[in-house]
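Please predict the structure of the following assembly.
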Amino acid sequence: MNLTNFINEMLGFWSEWLRPSAGLPTVLWSLLLAAAAVSGHVVQRYLGFPKVVGYSMVGAVFGFAGFEGAIWPLRGISLFLLELGAAVVLFEAGGRLPLRWFRHNPMVLVQSLLEATLTYFGVLWMLRLLGLPDPVANPIALMAIVASPAVLSRVIMDTRASGPVTERAMTLATLNTFYALALGYAQAGLIERAPQTLLQKLYPVAVVLGLSFVIGGILALALRMALRFMSPTSENTSILLLALIAAGAALTAHFGGSAPLAALVGGVLLKTLNPKPWAWQRQLGTAASLLTMLMFVLVSMVAAQADWTLPVASVVLAVIGIRLFAKIAGVAIANPGSGASWNQAFWVGCAMSPLSSIALLIASNFTTASPLLGTMITQVALPSILLMEVLGAVLATVAIHAVGESSVPWAPQAFSTTEDTQR
Amino acid sequence: MQLEPFNRSEALSLGVELELQLVNTHDYDLAPYAEDMLRLMAQTPLPGSVVPEMTSSMIEISTDICHSAEDVIRQLTPIREALIRNADKLNIAVVGGGTHAFQQWHERRIYDKPRFRELSELYGYLSKQFTIFGQHVHIGCPDADAALLMLHRMSRYIPHFIALSASSPFVQGQDTQFDSARLNSVFAFPLSGRAPFTLSWKEFEAYFERMTRTGVVRSMKDFYWDIRPKPEFGTIEIRVFDTPLTVERAAALAGYVQSLAAWFLQEQPFEPTEDDYLVYTYNRFQACRFGLDAVYVDPATGQHMPLRDHILMTMTQLEWHSEALNATRALGELRTSVEANRNDARWLREKQGKERLLAEVVRQAALRFRGGS
């Protein structure tokens, strides 16, 4: 009896036990996440890079290989998962946004506005110089404002970092995400229309902000009420939080708002209503980690679907270069009087280099709104996102170690023999 | 190596040092902001000084030479205001207390200074566990022999100081059942505990020389005693206090020490003996463990009595001296708290009982340091 006959006989024998299952895509996605988990671990343990790099590498490899799990532009469940992942990160980031800090140290707000403005105009200028039309250059410049809080928070977790540079980079990243989301979602709605008056231009921004504030406010109030009788350290409170963010994300997207922006606003409002320290992070634990890992894999998988050519690569590198310069310059120019040293200002600028899910969501919105322009935006946006998800994570890690704010040495853990006790 | 000569200082002059916690305003864990805080504090003209401590989430503030508890609070108040202003600028908070309630020692970083690096190499993990916060009170002595006499007399009141200042019931997220768990960390150091019993500076110099010959000791800084002479200042330094939650209580404690010292100098109420130390460790343990509820064994008579009663008794004995030293208000505040059986450890436990979240207890302690509650 040959092998084929044997397999057929076996399959025939098994066929009566076969039941309808979740299907091949579920198996593939599960294996993909398993590979990402292993890769993240290996990359950190043996190379000393942040885990995010491992996740992104797996996503990129699958993306390059043509895995059809996430088709650009994103829609359906993959879009929702990405929005949910970003919303969870931004809710937490919103809760860390210290509004009272800006009252005591307005220069931090000036740093934020300056670095965001310089980034926008710097990238816009560079793209115009390279011959890209305004309708394409403008969305890419908006997207470039974002310094991914998702990547930054993962790097902070990996390096167990705390300190002035870490906190300031996280605050500035959250603020510029707020600007970019509000402007990006609003402008995406206008891409095929040409608003004439200032009112017409501002109206969509007001709609996106208004919707996000309403949903974010409801989210914050619901959680505030829950916290009156539920402990912030309870697992059930964390599940309630995740469930409410998911519901909020679905609702906001349905009404045409920005789910991550609503979550960010919700986080800020909840912290204002309930100034007690948050204990979510530890409780959210593995569920949130899985969600963010999925987000990184998804982002890099989608971003890898871009067409890589030499001219595109030069534009991407130019965008990345000018963006990094603008961020460092913006933070540094407004540094005097902000309480930070020049050295710290430089590394804050560097720590804000990552690009990831939020930029992808903005790009996705433009692409959905205008498939024609979207193709041109995608050509530059996707490679930039992929490159800066990986390089940005590494640069943020370098920054945190350079200012001595990591609690773990940067030698790959597998080869580290002694604990570093010195700064 | 020779011990430096005991410098002259004005008898009963005072100096206070306070080690303080720097915490972030997100989860209220310790935050490594010492360098930034020192940079900002250097821009403000203030009395005393602000210096780094062993790990990068601690700073130490100190007064100039003071003459009364009122003087101490007059100096500590502008320092506190500057600390709060700069902490707000950095988005952190400053907190008192002998320990941080839930920090993990292994996450601490040694402050980048040669002496701290040296200590870290010698003591290993103990140096990170030394992220504890104390108040040191210097008291001026007329001469070197008087300083040793004062030191050993003061030793009888170590339990009083511990119970009054106790503010470290929580360590690494757990209630230790001690009112002052901080001193258990100090005990791990080889040269901690009590100073050798000698009432003559000549003999003390000989002891110091013998110790330096062994290579174990290079300077007085290497002794982590509960009370040690400080020859360069012409003082003795009492080091058993936990940092209180407010600068007002820190000043009141300084006033209590100064009143005791005045009583010793002016009335010579008793002669210290080596036998005083028979019950020293037991009394010290009782005060750390039970605070104001401790039992006090009188070293002279062997009589057991509630420490609270003994503290109140000394306060009555000191009334005349505290009036002369303008410390009546300071002692009054302490007396009120002892009568109500309250110290900072109890305040912290009550907050935790209500909030069930140590991070929230730290946040409220930060508000208390600002004068908010």
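Confidence is low (pLDDT under 50) at residues 418-423 of chain A. The radius of gyration of chain A is 22 Å.
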